[in-house]
Every structure is written in structure tokens, then in C-alpha cells.
Amino acid sequence: MKDQEKTPHSIYRKDYQAPYYWIDAVDLTFELGEDATRVRARLQMRRNLENNRSGGHNLVLHGEQLKTLSLKVNDNALAADIWQADEENLTVLTQLPEQFVLESEVEIYPQNNTSLDGLYQSSGNFCTQCEAEGFRRITWFLDRPDVMARYSSTIIADQKKYPVLLSNGNRCEQRDLGDGRHLVRWEDPFLKPSYLFALVAGNLACLDGEFITRSGRKVRLEIWVEPQNIEQCEHALRSLQQSMKWDEERFGLEYDLDIYMIVAVSDFNMGAMENKGLNVFNTKYVLSSPETATDKDYEDIQGVIGHEYFHNWTGNRVTCRDWFQLTLKEGLTVFRDEQFSADMGSAAVKRIEDVKILRTAQFDEDRGPMAHPIRPDSYIEMNNFYTVTVYNKGAEIIRLYHTLLGEAGFRKGMDLYFQRFDGQAVTCDDFRMAMADANDEDFTQLERWYDQAGTPLLHIDMEYDAEAKSCTLHLQQSQSTPDLVKNWQPWVIPVRIGLLGEQGEDLLCRLDDTPDAKTEHVLKVTQEKQSFRFHEVNARPVLSPLRRFSAPVKLDMQRDREEMAFLMAHDSDHFNRWDAGQTLAQDVLLDLTADIQARRELSLDSLFVSGFEKILHDTHLDGAIKALMLTLPNEHLLSLQMQEIDMDALHTAREFALSTLAQHFKQQWLDLYHSLRSTTPYSNDKNAINRRRLQACALEFLGYLPHTDHQHIGIQLAEEQFQAADNMSDAEAALKLLVNHPGPARDKALSDFYKRWKHEPLVLDKWFTLQASANHPGVVDEVLALAQHPDFSMKNPNRFRSLINIFSAKNPTYFHAKDGRGYQFLAEQVLAMDALNPQTAARVVSAFNQWKHYDVARRALMQAQLKRIIASPGLSKDVYEIVSRSLG
Ligand code: TRP
Ligand code: ZN
After folding, report:
1. Cβ of 487: how many Cβ atoms within 10 Å?
2. What is the CATH number of the domain that holds 727?
């Protein structure tokens, strides 16, 4: 909380006001130095005549940690008594003309900036991160997204140390200054808010390429990395070209500058940043090679490159009026990157992966102290609202428009959105109106998705009338989060459904009031209770509800296990086949958990086992889908179903199911594993990826076999696979098994891996992650020891997360160890990190958010750590906001 210990204040959406001044043009000059950097800013300003006609409102600029050297208005120095600066603002105390030029010169200290917000250094290079409010750490400014200006920047730096000087737009001047320094000047022709400004300076190598737009313009593409990484950029460049092509074909959107640059830096708080014409990326989402990156890494790179590229239209050309509207650009851009990845790979696999994230992380957020609507009403620190709710649930809400309007209607809405708002800073309401107007729809009720937090509960009852051959669905929706029930109003919920016949075939049926019989229908639920009737249904059908997860809701249906096993075997919708299997597995696992709590004898439901066997033997499913279907829901997901979470019982139940399935199908797993052995060198085509996925799944089950006479076939196979692997997917899958089995095989593999990869940071992160997520009781001691390892670092967020976030968020069984050592350890890490990097500290402290859902003993232990954190002097706004909401 800065120096003085005052309680941080909240900012409210309802308080939005347009700025009293506009900034039309910004000319920046950076003199980058080793001890300090000088920033001169020339702002061409103008009074906002709509709310400040007379100039009665003083000019108040944002700025943090700036050493002000001089201030001028229209070339006249501002005397010291007519301006005043505090921790956050500069106020000019005199009346200013209607138009004026404000010039400031400040000194900043990027080499000491460990928050990675504003201008900072990474591996000796300079780079910036300005979203959300980092630009104010560079110069005095109106650092808010509705102030859009034309930028030009001059960068001056030592020629040898910083041969490459980059900023947004086009390079328009370059010269030697004769004193060992050089100068480069950039101009960005597009208006933009300050959060999209970027500067990079350093010793970097470039992989270049090009893209010819559909109108025939040639765009130069540049991927900039530290020289030792230059061989690892091909996939990123290809992904960028694919993204550019896809956006033209799918949305008719063309790139607008002559150059597109991506810079990869190793110290970065998030995944990547869409700065105009100059994206800055976490190396994790750029660098790849078969030996160092897994299939998942390759997919993630493609997805994030796409995401940042798609922001050029959804975010940059049309941006947000204020930060409460963040989902306007993020929800929409996540939706677009999801569609892109689906088109580049497998739509069903992508949908399953996305829904898994939503059901674990987002549903989790909704049941805890940080629950907020996709358009929040208030915040203390904006950086805390870059959440799964704003991003991923936001994307689900965009998907609702798509489901309701269809592809063509959605496209019409997008076209109108760009036609109306190109070059402007707008709101979620503006988007919703464009979608409605383009399609002559009334989308008033859709606003409730932007206003109401919490996960909807959707109850469905089916009634079949054999005589009338009709089938009626009774739907009822409610708010599943008890704290949010007050003033709740029904949502618009599109429910995509199919009806299956006795043989599992899709039934053609006709919905009331519609002329055509179809095999799939979208029911538009708008009321608390609503019924829909289908005709010409000849026998009692089985319902396949919420296909492809057509809305972000929890389903509540009385279904017996036979019905779920039936859908798991037959549903023509792959997503729902997977989902039925997961629902069945969840049911079985929660029953086992109850048996463990009641100390009853355990046995694995035979219906589930036979359903599982059918999937195992299904020859039509591709390897990736099959692997997903053969994966049991994890402890985190299961824990969301328990009033009082019993992580130990959940873990024991899951282990019991896994080892039962491992033993029961031992020979099948072995056969499958061997049949999937690669006979050709590494390739990353779809078939090879699917093969590796399924083989990894078989190996994982083999890891759950018991030891017999000091032998363990799973460990043996993993050792062989690890030694023979010519790619990181195979090596990682093997090591994942080995880390769970303390002993010589594990020690050797971990030490070989370390020796081979200790100079490759992203791979060494995996070494930490694998150990932090290991499944054996010694893991707490190991994590504590790894935090003392010379390669562990608080300065690098990737490294910190690879140990601390993974342990606390992805290894719940051991993080929640009864003795509270995990909790104490996390609190210490949070406090140490908060002094360096508040954003990263605030993310990891969220691991305590569900403390109220645990047993009395754990509740007390977590609460004590939260109290210890909040009592610490000098806490950041970031951590303060999360912890104070948690303690409630
Ligand atoms: N706008 C970025 C994205 O979604 C997110 C981002 C990158 C970010 N860096 C950040 C958000 C730092 C807050 C703080 O692509
Ligand atoms: Zn984004």
C-alpha cells in the first residue's frame, strides 16, 4: 500500500466519466541508460468541450515512480507552485488554454523494475508492458483506454549493447549519433490508447518472413529473440501466417501496417501482449523445437500467436472505453482464437480442452471470494481482473451470440461492429447492440450475462407420451451460487440438444411451432421455467443435452448410469460422448469418496468399467479424443462438487479407480502401448500427435500397476521411453510417470534431464513443474528443497510459477497436507514475491481462495496464513485486494 498505510480504494464502473482533456498526439524521446532512463514527452492536448468547456477542471495526469525534471506548457516552464505531484497524480493548478502542448521530462529506473510493469529489463534488454496501467510508470499521461492518440517515438541508446531499437508502427529514421549511441525513430499512423504502446531495445536476432494480404499488400513479419534462440522460431512464424490468413477468410479482416513484429522475452508476467505492430511475448509462447517443446506447447504457441494477432482488430482497431469493458476485447478474442485452433486442429478436442478449463478454473472462481460478472462492477487493482471469468467465460458469452445467430448472422454482427466502431473506444453494450441490430434481434436480456456473476444451474426433466408420440422437456434455471441469489434474474440460455433412439441413432424430430424435423435443435431458454415439446418421436428417446457445451451452465438431471453409459458409447456428438463419460466417472468417483469417508469396502462400478472398456476398444475414435475419454476427472474438478472438500478421500478414490482400471486392463494397456510405438522419426502431423497422446495415456495407466517382486513394468517402460525419446512429448510423458515413484529410476532420469537441459530455461521449468506436480507423499519436502535450488528464482515469473503455482494449484492433495506446511510455505513465497512483483504474487495467493470450503482444521490453518499476509507492512494493492476479499 505504498508508503503510508492507507486502505486502497475501489474504482466503480458506475462512476465512469469521459476525460476532461484529450491527447491527440504524443511524441516520445527515450534516452536509455544503464543507471537511469530519460523520457521526454510532448503531448498535444485539447480540452474536452463536452464536459470541460470553460476549463474549470484542472488537468490531472497519471504517473508513478517518476522523477520529474521539467514541465512546460507551450514552451514555458511551469513554475513549481503551479503544479503538484503525489504518489499517483500530477495536477496542474492553473487554467490551461483550449489547446496546448505539454512537455515533460522525467527520469525512470528500468534496471530496478522487478514488477515487469512499465519499462524494465529482461536478460539485459529493455522492454515494456503497459497494459493495463503501466504507461504511467514511463511518463506523465492520461493513462486510460478512451484517450487515443497518434504516437511517435525516438529511441536513443548505446549502439553496441542495444543494436536493435523497436517501437510501434513504421521505422522512419535511423542514424548514428557519433558518441557510441544511435537513434531510431518510429511513427504509428493509427490512433491508440497508451496500453498498446511498446518499446524494445537490445541485442536480438530476427527470423523474418512475409505475408501477402488478400488485397495484395506485402507485410514484413519479424520474430525477434535472443540470438541463441533463433533456431526455435519457425513454428511461431508459421502460426502468424496461418492467423493472418484465417482472419481474412473467416472474418474478412486484413492486417493494416506494413510490418508486424513479435519479440520474445524471458521475464514476462503473462502469456503475451498485443501492442500495435509490436507484440511482446513470453518466450514460452514463441520458442519451440521437437526436442524442447511438447505437442501441447506447439498448440499453445499457435493459439497465443493467433490470440495476439486477432487483437489487432478486436482490441486495437476497436478498443475498450474503460477497463470494466475488458471482456469486450478479451472474451471476443479468446472466442476467435478458440475457433482458429479448432480449424487448425480438431474441433472436438479443442472444445473439450476449453470446457475443462472453464469447469475447473472458472466455476471455481464463481464459488469463491473473487466471483465477478464478466463485466465487473468494481476493482481495486485492475491487474487482478485478467481472470478466467473475463477471458474464458467471456468467450462463452460470445459463443452464445454465435449459437443463437449462426455463423452468417454472427458475421453480420461483427461486420456492423467494425463499421460502427473502427478507431473508437467502446463498451460491451455497443457490441451487443451491433449484434442485435445487424440481425434484427432484441438482445436486451443478454445483458444479464454481463451483470450477474455466478454459474447457472439448469435442471432438465424429460416426459415421454407414447400415445401422442411426443416428448416434452421441462427446463428450469437458477443461480447456483447461494450468495448471489438476491435480485437474480433468468439468463438467456441456448440449449443445443439431440434425441437418440434405441440403437443410439440420431432421431429426426420436430419442435413445436417449427415445420422441419431435424436431428439437432437449439432451445432458447429465457425464462425461469420453460417447456419444449417434440413431435413424431416414436419411442422413448435418450436425451443428449447441451451439446458442445452450448452455454456455461451446470446441468442438473436425474439420469441413471445406464443412460450415461449409453451416451458415452453412442452419442454422435463427440463432445457429449466425452461429457457423458466424465459425468459417469464423476458420479462413480464421488460415490467412492463417500465410501472412503464411511470406511466402507471399495469396488469399482461394473457399468463404468464396461463403458470404459468400450472406449478402449473403439476403433473409430482418434487417439487424442480417446485419450481424453480415458482420462478421469481430476481432484480439483471433483472437489467443486463437495460442500466440504475432503481432498484426501477424493485422492484415494481416484487412485483406487486408476489402479483398478490399470490392473483390470493390464494386458490391453500393454498391447496398446506397444502397438503405438513409433516406427518412424519424429513428426508433428496430426496422426503422430494423436498416437503420442494415446500412448502417453496407456503409459500413465501402467504407472498405476502394483510393484511385483521389485519389478514394475510401467517404470521399466517409462525408463526405456525416456532414454529413447527423440522429442519432448515422449520424454515428458515418461518422466511424469517416473517422478511418482521415488527410487533409482526416478533419480537417474531427473538428473539426466537436468544435466541435459540446465541451460535451456523453458525446459528447466518443466523439470521444476514435473517435480512440483508429482504424486507421492514426499513431494512437500521436495518442493521446499527445490525452492532453495540454485536454479530457482523469484525474479523470473516462469520459473517461480513452475514450482510455486504448480504445487499450490495443480497438486491439491499435497498442497493441502494436513500439517499446514504447504500453506506456510505458500504464504512465505507470496510475501517474498510481493516485494518484487505484485502481479505474480497476487496470482499465486489465490490458491487460498477456497479456504472456507475445507474442514475446520485446514480452514483455521489457511485463515491464519491469510491474516499473516494481510498484516504484513507494505503489502501491494494487488495482494491486498485478493486477500481482503478472501477473508471477507
Ligand atoms: N492483453 C494481453 C492478452 O490477453 C494480456 C496481458 C499481457 C496482460 N500482459 C499483461 C494483462 C500484463 C495485464 C498485465 O493477450
Ligand atoms: Zn488478449
Report:
1. 8
2. 1.25.50.10
Question: How far away, in angstroms, is 840 Cα from ligand 1 center?
Answer: 12
Give the chain's count of helices (H) and strands (E).
29, 33
- Among all bound ligands, the one having the nearest atom to the CA of 837 is 1
Residues 103 and 6 in one domain: yes
User: Pick from 518, 536, 551: which residue ends a domain?
Assistant: 551
Task: Decide whether any atom of ligand 1 lies within 6 Å of the 395 Cβ.
Answer: no
* Cβ 327 under 6 angstroms from ligand 1: no
**Among the atoms of ligand 1, which is closest to the Cα of residue 311?**
15
Q: Is 131 a catalytic residue?
A: no
Residue 626 lies in a domain: yes
> Own/partner pairs for 291-298, CB < 8 Å, 24+ apart?
291/726, 291/727, 291/728, 292/232, 292/728, 292/757, 292/760, 292/762, 292/763, 293/728, 293/762, 294/728, 294/729, 294/732, 295/684, 295/689, 295/692, 295/693, 295/729, 296/729, 297/728, 298/235, 298/684
Residue 527 lies in domain: 460-551
CA–CA separation, 162 and 220 (whole Å):
22
DSSP string, 503-553: TSPBPPEEETT-S-EESEEEEEE-SSEEEEEEE---S--EEE-STT--SS-
Residues 335 and 480 in one domain: no
Atom of ligand 1 nearest to the CA of 839: 14
- pLDDT for the residue 5: 57
User: What CATH number is given to the structural domain containing 71?
Assistant: 2.60.40.1730
Determine the pLDDT at residue 503.
Answer: 96
* Assigned domain for 5 exists: yes
Task: Return the ligand number nearest the Cα of 132.
Answer: 1
* Residue whose CA is at the smallest distance from ligand 1 atom 2: 273
Residues 440 and 467 in one domain: no
706 lies in some domain: yes
Structural domain total, the chain: 4
Same domain as 599, residue 495: no
CATH code where residue 512 lies: 2.60.40.1840
Mapping DSSP onto H, E and C, the string for 608-676 reads HHHHHHHHHHCCCCCHHHHHHHCCCCCHHHHHCCCCCECHHHHHHHHHHHHHHHHHHCHHHHHHHHHHC
Which of 129, 316, 327 to probe ligand 1 with, by most ligand atoms within 8 A of CB?
Answer: 129
Determine which residue's CA is closest to atom 14 belonging to ligand 1: 131
Both 38 and 88 in one domain: the answer is yes
Q: Please tell me the predicted confidence (pLDDT) of residue 708.
A: 87
pLDDT mean by block of 10 residues, the chain; 888 residues: 68 98 98 98 98 97 98 97 97 97 98 98 98 99 99 98 98 98 98 99 98 98 98 98 99 98 98 99 99 98 99 99 99 99 98 98 97 98 98 99 98 99 99 99 98 98 96 98 94 98 96 92 98 95 98 96 97 98 98 98 98 97 98 98 98 98 98 95 96 98 92 97 98 98 97 98 99 98 98 98 98 98 98 98 98 98 98 98 97
Q: What confidence tens digit (pLDDT) does each residue in 454-467 have?
A: 999 999 999 999 99
Are 332 and 389 members of one domain? yes
Identify the CATH number of the domain in which residue 431 sits.
Answer: 1.10.390.10
Closest CA to ligand 1's atom 11: 131
Query: Is the beta carbon of 803 within 6 A of some atom in ligand 1?
Result: no
Ion ligand 2: residues, CB within 5 A, are 330, 333
Which one of 308, 330, 732, 881 is the catalytic residue? 308
Specify the pLDDT at position 4. 47
Domain end point (choices 416, 451, 486): 451
Same domain, 381 and 417: yes
Q: Are residues 435 and 488 in the same domain?
A: no
Ligand 1 pocket residue status of 132, Cβ below 6 Å = yes
Does residue 279 sit within a domain? no
Residue type, 338: E
Cβ(129) to ligand 1 under 6 A?
A: yes
